[in-house]
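Troubleshooting entry. The earlier prediction with iron/sulfur cluster gave an output that would not parse, so I re-checked the input for stray whitespace and re-submitted. Clean input:
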Amino acid sequence: APKAAGKLETRKSVCTHCSVGCTVIAEVSNGVWIGQEPGWDSPFNLGSHCAKGASIREHAHGERRLKYPMKLEGGKWKRITWDQAIDEIGDQMMKIREESGPDSVYWLGSAKHSNEQAYLMRKFAAYWGTNNVDHQARICHSTTVAGVANTWGYGAMTNSYNDMLNSKAMFFIGSNAAEAHPVAMQHILKAKEQNNAPLIVCDPRFTRTAAHATEYVRFRPGTDVALIWGILYHIFENGWEDKEYIRKRVWGMDSVREEVKKWTPEETEKVTGVPGSQLHRVARTLATNKPGTLVWCMGSTQHANGNDNTRAYCVLQLALGNIGVEGGGANIFRGHDNVQGATDFGVLMDSLPGYYGLATGSWKHWARVWDTDYNYLLSRFENKEMMEAKGIPVSRWFDGVLEDKENIEQRDKVRAMVFWGHAPNSQTRGPDMKKAMEKLDLLVVVDPYPTVTAVMHGRSDNVYVLPAATQLETSGSVTASNRSLQWREKVFEPLFESKVDHEIMYLFAKKFAFDKEMFKNIKVENNEPNVEDTTLEFNKGMWTIGYTGQSPDRLKLHMANQHTFDKRTLKANGGPCDGDYYGLPWPCWGTAELKHPGTPVLYDTSKPVAEGGLCFRARFGVAAPEKWAKGNPDADNLLAVESYPEGSEIKDGYPEITYAMIDKLGWAGDLTAEERAAIEKVAGSSDPEAMGKVNWKVDMSGGLQRVAIKHGLAPFGNAKARTVVWTFPDPVPLHREPLYSPR
Ligand code: SF4
């Protein structure tokens, strides 16, 4: 690395080019970023960078960075000031809002935001009064989230990149990690070498990943489900399934067994093009080399039947007993560096942060966290119905704009689009989008670079381009694909006139006069909201998926001490914990003091069900994969997997568990006095027997945990839940401020 005269400082950051989360050591002299090294001690990249990561300094300093705000006028770009930009855009938006309601402005966010910025983006849309907010995850992995969350609870990768070193077999489908996630590939190749682990790569194309395979399976595009069913045919036919695991933890595998009987080698070959003998070999390899990991990426998800693909993969892993164990798992390689975090923080048209959904209780929960009156938030929306209804997905924002009918829904009448770190040219229906952009009243692009969005519209007026700083010019947390949070240290000051995204959000909030309400508990200095205050605020509210224990201090400590966290040494010395080794993956409950280790492996099955360490029981409803094979998109969502705690009953589509069960699981001792009093009130007595009879309704709508006390104390409730899932993801009891708080 080049050395400069004077003091050389190093700053630890995280690569922004994919979801592996490699540590970057930036060398800075006199405020100038002059060199870079890979994080030698990072458990993610173990001292390596790929070509993309090695170029982030050049990327951040790219010659084509936007230098100042600009406005398109009479076909010419004109330099303007920030004050003018915020004033003109703000005035137009308020006029549009007055004439057509808050939904007429669409806030399209980004997987390039830090967690804090993603959280503020969703919060910003809420204070503006719309659910017309979304980001890239809708296009890339929304089918994974829907498929996996509805299968066993969390819409995320179950294990970790570096956990693949524990794998005895690796099954890749729809993933070309060698090119898309190059540093993850080193863990894969290491497992192949050190464990002699077979690498099975299923892909219609022979990729660079396939070039490393011990078994390459070429199959027809879109026939993933038939392929998996064809593998399961051999597994059941030969008795290779994990019978004990299924008996203890999986309901309804019999119906899967019945379904796959139809997928004889001949039938499967007809649909997928893969010879039966090869699938027999694959099935035997998977059954005799355990634990095995299953990895997928966007080759699997960007299909009309993406949900079904991802669910079928989960079924295969459950049949093999590969979920909830080190070296196993359903492992989803995400795309952008913070697509997991932006999804977790609800930059989505159908949820508030933490997958809380949009029900009244969810709004009340977040209003409490934001220290804002619920009725104030309600007043920002057109009405309560609009507040609780889904917005428009990013893949459809333009349909309503192109529609000339008078009676079009108010929500669909988008008149102004803000593309904030999002270039939609990678989406399908580009020509439709271009036409819609021409019809908009106002188009705003916020990005470090002049993206295609800024020029693809064919307009000659009323387009604004605002220069945003990169993630290397600010600090904050970022969530890698494996659910691990890491802290990015600011490397250099924003270049030219660019501003960090959260400052731009603040300036707009100020213009719209909700800054005081929105940033009530977040310090703002020189128009820049404090990043740490933002983290601490979301720590208070993210109970559904356990973003409550990763305080800024703890995250910074983790980054500073990466080199001390060698997994074997830690285990031998009894601490700090595996979670630190992996970077505090969620769920990480509680507070900084509680030092919850995070959860490197979701659904830990190390304890027997009978000892209260149960993680899930799953029940399958079975779809008919021949429908997918025929390309019938109506086959979506036919496969449902449900799991409940031992002994719970299903009423009105929800599992119900009693206080006695809560007690047995060790949660009861953790209740606050108020919570205990609330249960006593419902039971009409403090007698343990009476309290034991209180039913707790567990609402898992959307596949996520919402725990509520029945009898009117429930802050949540969504009768529309299609699939109900209950999991015990973690042996540590839920801590303070749980969702079932009666306040
Ligand atoms: Fe960056 Fe991804 Fe390459 Fe790591 S693998 S250096 S995170 S682009």
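This one parsed fine. The longest strand covers residues 8-14.
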